[in-house]
Amino acid sequence: MVTVISYSKNIYFDSNSNSIKNGFYYTMLDDVAGIMLKNKDVTFSVFGYTDNIGTEEYNLKLSERRANEARKYLIERGVEPDRITAKGFGEVNPAYSNETTQGRQLNRRVEIKSVGYYESKTQIKIDEIKKN
Fold this sequence. Notes:
Helix content is 33%, strand content 22%. The chain has helices spanning 23-38, 56-76, 101-107, and strands at residues 2-4, 8-12, 43-48, 84-88, 109-115, 124-126.
């Protein structure tokens, strides 16, 4: 058994893209799905963001597509749709400065965070994710 208190991960995207770009991120999403499938009271929120290149309106829609891409993958893995929310924020709340190439790359992200009961720091016992 593993004790999990809270969970938060990021997925990074190429410019002007909502495609999840490599296997590492799919493995991370599989881990989230594993947590959710083994703990029916756990819910997650997926928040999408962009850098500041492009219009605010375009970036808002792109961030929504990014968040929904991660949500869709979790649903395809068997997680109930009502346990995953997705919201795009566009270029609002950058994690890093948009003045540099590296900062913009790190702002093109989706944040996946546990919410509700799970986020309240109540400990939940789960089977080891890698067992199955």
